[in-house]
Structures are given as structure tokens and as C-alpha cells.
Amino acid sequence: MITRLILYLLLATLCCAAPAPPPPVQLLRSLAASITATAPKTPINNVARIVRKLRGLSAVARNPKATLKYYGGPVLNRLEVTTLFLGKNPNQSGINAFHAFLVKSPYMDFLSSEYSGPDGKIGYGTLKGSYVETDAKMLAKKAYTDDGIQSYLTTLAKQKRISPNRNSYYPIYLPPGKSVSLQGLVSCENFCGYHGAVNVTKLGIPNTPYLYYAVIPDQTGSCAGGCGMGSAFENLCSVSSHEVAEVVTDAAMSLVTSVDPMQPMAWFAPESDSGGEIADMCNTIQEQLTDATGKKWTVQKLWSNANQKCMAQITPSKAKPTTRRV
Q: Which of these, 239, 233, 140, 144, lies nearest to 186 by C-alpha position?
């Protein structure tokens, strides 16, 4: 049975709706963050209303003009990205280049302008490195589970193959043909990606109670066309930016132990029925940002409290140097 808490957390942490609308009888097992541009008939508003009722809230119409509020949880103000690939991946170099750009881009300036936390302004981050898993047993799996992913990350940390700190983020990329399941929901059937956190207090890492990660499936195959309007690689970048924004602004959401907003939740909009995190509220709405060489990168827009609309960067005429390179 899916509990109220699971319903609430899944709606917030999952990225993107399923490529095809599920039958109404499967609503409770077909949660996703919001309606995708390519599947406008997905009955996600009905799902959201059910979730709201289970949380003791009134069923209300979709409210795109929600407000993200800060609940005291961690905000990652100097993001350190280490990409993890489960085996060889044709997109590895491209995804690494995308993250190297994104963490020092106007995307981060926008986050800094509205969504910093008590530890200081959100600044530019770094791409720390890339790890490719080669273990034959791990790579032989055709389907992964979130429990298995968390155990895997904990093992990597114990073996010091990764060295997390309070700003570390580990997006895990699945190769083509592989899937991941989360509480009975399956990638590319029910979601395009998700982020989470593992409590690693027992590992004794200084000032690092949590390890933050995301799992992002390949955007070909059953994911094709369901997670954005661009090419497979553009959609992969878009989903990746969705998770980056939510890890920065609401890193430990998946560890919340109440059906009501509370720590370790950070920036969240409880009145929103589209998931409640900064990227959920603009799900699959894409924009392109240009790097110093003129190359265009596809990102997903994010919700702006100040402007009450979806944005990927501060309006040029209003832009101020809110971050510094690190």
C-alpha cells in the first residue's frame, strides 16, 4: 500500500510525467511531478488532488502562481558535481561538458538571486570529476531499484571511491535499455528522473550527514519524446538541469518524515499541486542558454517567486553579478 508520506514525497522528487497517460484505475501507482508537454492528457491533476486529500488538504484547481517557501533544510551553495555512469555511455563527454557549463552559468545566477539559504548565497559550482562503474555484477542488471542505488552509493563512499562533502552531488546516468524503479514506479513509464538523499551519518564524514544523488535514465527508447520537446540529448540535459536545480534548493526532500512541510525540506511550495519543488512547477518547459563559445545548451525553466513565472535566467536588463566563480 502506498502511504500518504510516499505519495507526498514522490510527487515532489520525481521529474517529469510518463510519456503516455495511464488508465485512471492506476492513478495511485502512476505518480509523476506534473503534466509533460508531450502528454497533456496525463491525469496528473487528479493524482495531485488525491495526494492533497490524503494529506488532509482541500482538493483545489492547479495553481501555477504558487510561492516557494524556505523550511530550514540544506541548500547547496557551492555545488560539486561528480557524474556517475553505470558502464560505458555514449553521452558521457557531452553530459560532463553540460555540467561544467551549467554550474557556472546564468542558471546559477538565477538560483542565487532568489533561493539562497542561511549558509550564504548560492555561488558557482564545479564539475569535480566523473566515475564509470566497471563491476560486471552491477552492470549485468537490466533494472535497478532506488534501495539498490542507495546501497551502491554508500558502498562507494565506504570504499572511498567517492568522497562526498556537504555540497557534493552525484547524478547517476543509466545506459540505454536500463531502468530504475522507485516505490513501484518505473523510469520512462512513470518518471524521467528523480533526486534523493542518503543518510550517511554513520560513515563519520565531517559536516556531511547526507549524500545527495539523482538517477537519470537514457532519453532514447521508452523515454523518447516523453521528457521534453528536444532531441534525446537535449532532453537528457533538460532533465539533468531539473535535478540540479532541485538538489541545490531542496537537497534532502526525500528524507522528510512528515506529511507536512518541515526540515530537512528547504525551498518548497506546499500549495502547488505540480510537485512543489522549483523545477516541478515548470516541468519540461525548456530554454537554451549559450556558453562562451556560442554553443547552446538546453535547460528546463524554473519557478521564480519574484516574477511569478518560469525562467532559466535573470532578465538581462535586471541581471546583477550575484555569484562568483570558485
A: 144
Distance CA 224, CA 219 (A): 5
Give DSSP secondary structure letters for 216-279: E--SSGGGTTTS-SS-HHHHHHHHHHHHHHHHHHSTTGGG--SSSS-TT--EE-TT-SS-SSTT
Q: Minimal CA–CA distance to 81: which of 195, 199, 196, 164? A: 164
What is the spatial distance between Cα 157 and Cα 125, in angstroms, rounded to a whole number?
21
CA distance 233 to 162: 26
pTM above 0.70, yes or no: yes
- In the chain, what is the greatest distance between 2 CA atoms, to the nearest angstrom? 53
Burial of 266 (0-12, 13-18, 19+ CB in 10 A): buried
* Residue 48 in grid coordinates: 495531485
Instruction: Identify the residue whose cell numbers are 511531478.
Output: 33
C-alpha cell at 293: 563559445
Please list the pLDDT of the chain residue by residue as tens digits (326 residues). Answer: 233 334 444 545 667 654 443 322 222 222 333 222 223 222 223 233 223 322 322 233 344 568 999 999 999 999 999 999 999 999 999 999 999 999 999 999 999 999 999 989 999 999 999 999 999 999 999 999 999 999 999 999 999 999 999 999 999 999 999 999 998 899 998 899 999 999 999 999 999 999 999 999 999 988 888 899 999 999 999 999 999 999 999 999 999 988 788 899 999 998 887 789 999 999 999 999 999 999 999 999 999 999 999 999 997 645 454 444 33
Q: What is the C-alpha separation between 266 and 316, in angstroms, rounded? A: 28
